[in-house]
């Protein structure tokens, strides 16, 4: 009897083993088929899944790339991350019933996921991050009792946040950042008591922050900024005893900063920047002894900086810029031992900076600009030997520039303009290996420009303007290989311009205006092939204008006015490849004005003749002379050369003048924009008139900027896509369809004022275009829009058809101004 029982037990056991093995084999075959079907939906451009094949010689699917099987031979992990896969994730993935890990992250999927993952009830890790999945987030993950991680960051999901995740109470990470989720944050997430990371930032989430989030007792990181939240920060968040990282930045939050946040014992990072927070900075924040990063910038906080902030001995970042803070900076902030970044700019802070600032801290970045600070710059601000950026402009700092700055090898930028600094520029800045910008303009500095600046191998921008610097320029200053801009206007620099411009590979802007420079303009300047702007006005320069300046390939703005230059205007200025603004006024120039180009601002040179000026003796250009004389007879004196210089202005056209698209009136004085009087110059002047009518501006306005006329100003507005804001409201600029017609006419004006005369249309073409400059209509109102025959009376001519989905102007209306 006993033997029979033993035999029966053995038979049942063997049968069970055989059944289980057979079941596993069957399941394995089904999973193999499921994987192959899944691959069929992929686009595997790199062949990452080349070993996923069927056939007699194919390897077992448990050995395929990214596939892991458990002891029973069933697929329990599918890791296809970073394989550059695209295509579609089909429902075949749901046939892998034993999956605990599904990782499809860092691929190129751009379709929807299966609607529900409920069949994969064993899932522990679900990671589809860094793709472009779209549509609603799949349901069913809430039924996965062992689910610990959901990472769907960096996708294009839409719709509500998945509320059913609240049922997966084993969750430790929920990362849904960087999609387009909308609606509110589910209060049901309160049940996720094991949750350590909740990331919802960078979506379109609305509503208030649920106070229930304060019940997530295990939470270590809460990242829900960059949304469209409303209301204030819940004080209940102060109960999160394990919270280390709190990021509510750019969340549209308002109200005060809760003092309860000062109770967070483990917090290391607090980011509340770019909200609408108001009130004072709570002194209780000084109790967070673990805090390393504190950023409260870009809010509406008021009052002083609390003394308690200086108690944060681990703090490395203190950013409270762009608020409405006032009062003085606590002296003890200068003694914070780990402070690396101090951002205070754009507040209303007063008094002196702590004298000890930088002496005992490894400062890397200090920005205290645009306040009302006074007193000296802290002498030891670079004692930590790590300071890279020192930004102090727009204050009232006094005293000298600390000598220690000129030996601070870590400096990259020094911006101390618009203060009241005195004394000399310390020697040594030129030897700093990383210094790129040196901005000391608008102070009361005196003495000479240090010669060691010429030895720099890194400086790209030097601005010493508006000081009392004197003596001559260092002889090799412009040989700095990286120098792009040197500005030293409005000083009392004397001597001659150094004739060492042969090695200036990067120089783009040189402004030495309003000084006492004498002598000739060196011809070697022409070797600066990248020079775009040269301003030498209001000096004592003599001699002739070097002919080589006219052919500099990048020169767009040249101002040599108010000097004592003699001789004639080099005739090749008319064919200068890039020149747009030339000011030669108030010199002693003589002879004929070149007629082969657009030149401007020649007033105050009584010896010049020809073109629109009085004809030169014996001139054969009698027709041009007669036209110029007729223009001068009906225009203010010097109007021909004064519009752009500013010594005379055209009469203001009444803003109430009514006009039509076919108005072709051309005012006297039109030839002031060119010294070549022909049909193409008429077209240019007519374009200027159109611009004046449409914008309500004169040809030259102070708001255009120095050396700028209405043509350049209009083109600037077109490039920045702001031209619609500058249409004259008194002639219909507030009416949508009239505004559209004005923009079309302005397009014609741009064509008329093309820099190259050959690119301007004829007057016949202008009249035709003006007649056809009709605004786009609603769909069906014209032949072009409705698909009717283009010969229909209502059809819009092809030359002025405007795509309804495109702006009337592109950012580059023509190649000359691209």
Automatic annotation (TrEMBL):
Domain of life: Eukaryota
Residue numbers spanned by region Disordered: 774-818
Primary residence: membrane
A Gene Ontology cellular-component term: membrane
Pfam families listed in its UniProt record: LRR_1, LRR_8, LRRNT_2
Keywords, comma-separated and alphabetical: Leucine-rich repeat, Membrane, Repeat, Signal, Transmembrane, Transmembrane helix
Gene3D superfamilies (UniProt xref): Ribonuclease Inhibitor (3.80.10.10), Transferase(Phosphotransferase) domain 1 (1.10.510.10)
Amino acid composition bias (Low complexity), ranges on this chain: 780-792
Residue ranges the record marks as coiled coil: none
Biased composition (Polar residues): 809-818
Keyword 4Fe-4S: no
Secretion signal span: 1-24
All copies of domain Leucine-rich repeat-containing N-terminal plant-type, residue ranges: 30-70
Subcellular location: Membrane
Name listed for the protein in its UniProt record: Leucine-rich repeat-containing N-terminal plant-type domain-containing protein
